[in-house]
Automatic annotation (TrEMBL):
Subcellular localization(s) per the UniProt record: Nucleus
Residue span of region Disordered: 117-161
Task of the protein: Acts as a transcriptional repressor. May be involved in DNA damage-inducible cell cycle arrests (checkpoints).
Protein name per Swiss-Prot or TrEMBL: Forkhead box protein N3
Protein's organism: Dryococelus australis
One Pfam family linked to the record: Forkhead
Length: 492
DNA sequence: GCCGGAGTAAACATGC
DNA sequence: CGCATGTTTACTCCGG
């Protein structure tokens, strides 16, 4: 029997489990930076137990040295735990991203130890754990971030049309002593996520991740974001921080199904916005990569977009919409703790369930703190950036005074992108083994991707208007692979 | 009422 | 020619 599924016009109550903890499914964009607001009396006390996660997890690790859980060393990252704040709501910020990545790794069978039950009915979650390896849920590495494929050997349904509609996520004391690998496939539709008591942080991450799928269920209302915000999110969500307009369309369609049935004029609006909005600028892409240009966010105007996003309505559920109560407005103390937060005002309309919550941490500048210069990790990037500059402009830039170099590179780096192409550079120019782990058939494509990525990253560093873009691309692609500049070797 | 931002529609150019 | 992409203009709506 098909479980009841909340329709687009249903309120949060239909998503709420009757059990002691009821967390509205959090529709989020790329996971972190979501705030789950609990309605009064619906389990906030239980959630507070999540504060104990740190202890629980460390105890579990100590007592299960050989358990697969040890692969979840990311949980030792205190930042993850610091990122949680349990003052009536669950707040989840940048630190979670790493966790999610690990979860992604985890669900590919590297780790184990979760009890996840996929059910087709909304009965009480007491049994029928799905135990399996090789889980293959939505591929978080995909650009659209929502693809899903059946898990081989899954004991649950294996096609989107028959996928389980309810995913119970358990965290029971001692659960980690047994090795429950899970295989719970669900498609990009029809998924409710129910969180059981004693939710641990790791499961919260799962929940967040799973909730990502929820985006596709209820997003039938017009997004509360301007087109510039949508474009911004799309571009920022891309691996190279640049997208052709077609991909921007696709991203928007992926994340906001509203547009699937919207009049086609919205594409016009997107193009109009790209052309008119000074926040976006066009970058010629390699001539062999199809027609059209790549669109990037102009770093000069990036703060404007971040600000626009921050002004966007935030919380998917407001209590005023669902049974009364107060809206969540982060305190100033909270604001000081987390520089990534969106505030929604009472006068602003809140997004409906299923609309996106921007992952704001992703859009904030990552390398603007001067102290980063002294950070060995950032020097790694600096050297890579310097290497890339050298790639284009010869060793002259490398011979600058170190301090000046750092300053220059950082400045230009910020102008370029906040991304870190160091891995890309390494792979391309050091015969990184990871490049050769790709099958022969995919290697050239991978190299092409890397080259495109590097081009996007370095294009802003090129002298403007020096020849046609395509010739510059050719020139760049033909650029000799220079030896790593001094100081970079140790990082390679 | 004014102004600016945002959304929408449309015309037009360009290139594949 | 059709279509996608990109630019520009004009208009409306809305909130400050």
């Amino acid at each position: 029997m098909a479980p009841e599924r909340p329709g687009p016009d249903d309120d949060a109550a239909t998503l709420v489990h009757r059990g002691p903890v009821s967390i509205p499914v959090v529709p989020i964009f790329s996971l972190p930076s979501a705030i789950v607001q609990l309605k009064e009396g619906d389990g906030a006390g239980n959630l507070i137990t999540a504060v104990k996660v740190e202890d629980v997890m460390s105890e579990e690790r100590e007592s299960n040295e050989d358990d697969d859980l040890t692969s979840l060393s990311w949980l030792q990252d205190k930042n993850l735990l610091k990122a949680a704040n349990f003052s009536g709501c669950v707040q989840c910020f940048g630190g979670v991203l790493r966790g999610v990545a690990q979860v992604s790794k985890y669900r590919r069978g590297v780790g184990a130890g979760m009890n996840i039950r996929a059910a087709e009915t909304q009965e009480s979650p007491t049994s029928d754990y799905v135990e399996d390896g090789g889980s293959d849920l939505a591929d978080s590495t995909s650009s659209s971030g929502h693809s899903a494929s059946p898990a081989p050997g899954s004991s649950t349904k294996s096609t989107p049309s028959t996928c389980p509609t309810t995913l119970w996520v358990h965290d029971m004391k001692g659960a980690f002593t047994t090795s429950h690998k899970f295989s719970c496939y669900f498609g990009s539709q029809d998924l409710n996520v129910k969180i059981c008591p004693n939710l641990s942080y790791s499961f919260f991450v799962i929940e967040m991740w799973a909730a990502r799928e929820q985006i596709h269920v209820h997003t039938n209302s017009k997004p509360p974001y301007s087109f510039s915000c949508l474009i911004f999110m799309a571009i920022e969500d891309s691996p190279v921080k640049a997208l052709p307009v077609k991909e921007i369309y696709a991203w928007i369609l992926d994340h906001f199904p509203y547009f699937q049935n919207a009049p086609t004029g919205w594409k016009n609006s997107v193009r109009h916005n790209l052309s008119l909005n000074k926040c976006f600028r066009k970058v010629e892409k390699a001539p062999n990569l199809g027609k059209g240009s790549l669109w990037m966010v102009d770093s000069l105007y990036r703060p404007n977009l971040v600000q626009a996003l921050q002004k966007a309505p935030y919380h998917p559920y407001t209590s005023s919409e669902h049974g009364g109560g107060k809206e969540y407005i982060p305190s100033s103390a909270h604001l000081s703790r987390h520089n990534t937060v969106a505030v929604f005002k009472s006068s602003q309309r809140a997004p409906r369930p299923g609309t996106l919550v921007p992952r704001l941490d992703m859009f904030l500048p990552r390398r603007q703190q001067p102290e980063d210069v002294d950070d060995p990790d950032s020097l790694d990037d600096v050297d890579a950036a310097a290497a890339m500059l050298a790639l284009k402009h010869g060793h002259r830039v490398i011979t600058l005074d170190r301090g000046q170099l750092v300053h220059t590179v950082l400045k230009r780096w910020d102008m370029c992108l906040q991304d870190t192409p160091v891995q890309c550079w390494k792979q391309l120019h050091t015969r990184d083994p990871s490049l050769y782990c790709h099958p022969e058939s995919q290697r050239s494509r991978h190299v092409n991707t890397l080259q495109q990525r590097l081009y996007c990253l370095t294009e802003p560093l090129l002298p403007p208007n020096k020849g046609h873009a395509s010739s510059r691309v050719r020139h760049w692609r033909a650029a000799p692979i220079l030896p790593a500049p001094r100081g970079l070797d140790k990082h390679l």
